[in-house]
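Aggregate trends can hide what the representation actually does to any particular protein. For completeness, the protein is quoted in full, as a sequence line and a line of structure tokens.
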Amino acid sequence: MTRAPIALTCGEPAGVGPELAEKSWGALKDELAFFVIADPAHLPGDVPHKVIQSPNEVEDVIATALPVLSHSFPNNRNPGKATPANAQGVIDVIAKAVDLALSGEASAVCTSPIHKKALKDGTDFPWPGHTEYLAHLAGVDQVVMMLASPELSVVPTTIHIALEDVPAALTPDLLQRTIEITVADLRKYFGISQPRLAIAGLNPHAGEGGTMGHEEQLIITPVLEKLRATGLDLRGPLSADTMFHAHARQGYDAAICMYHDQALIPIKTLDFDRGVNVTLGLPFIRTSPDHGTAFDIAGQGIANPTSTIEALRLAAKMADAREKAVVD
């Protein structure tokens, strides 16, 4: 069965999303089928594009032009400067992509970067970011953000909150569900039958026996012991400062971290350009390049498309793994 095409959202039109969509088509047109949901007037026009009416037209178009499922925006693209009037269009494009994925017309959703302040200024967007909005659209209570690259995959247990709020937010239930969702989707979308997870401590030296904090003893260790009893392969809690060197990374498939920067600093240091944001726990596949709107270089044609290309490739691999799991 031919895989349905991947839906790529336009993201913030004033950012690098439109030009990265065109560059990605140039790199991938002979490799995989995807289409961008965007206002055709926002595309730079550096490559040929063709407006389609339905994703089922993509296969006939992709070899010679970037397929564009048109979504009109009220204002033109102004590279480097977001227009609040376009905010609702950005939100509607994401929702359209999700609808197509849920209906099976798209095999996955790949989202270009949004600008959260622009969405708040234009619509009072109430969600902290893409991940939380996608969970709302899917009607699920908890999702997991995984950053994946060939060098390392990491999951922050708490995400877009202040560092001072992390200890209170780090509950046994949150940690357990984060681990369970990660394991389930590594099996479903990555073909790893028995995922190996390394679990970071919250405090320096993983608390060092309670001398530098008690979250490891009171929260993390009891959760790990409970889940190990079900057969999960979990190592930790580990000192975060020794988890990410080359030899340590060979011992696990993904690292579960306790807060945002504990997870994102190592992966962005090791493999910035190829990092891909994956949302686990959704009823559809979602990937995204691991960078922002890059207003400072938008419209100059110099944005690096590597992360977007890798996000589309990973979405395709996840879709194939899902189909194989169903067949098996």
User: Anything to note?
Assistant: The chain has a mean pLDDT of 94.
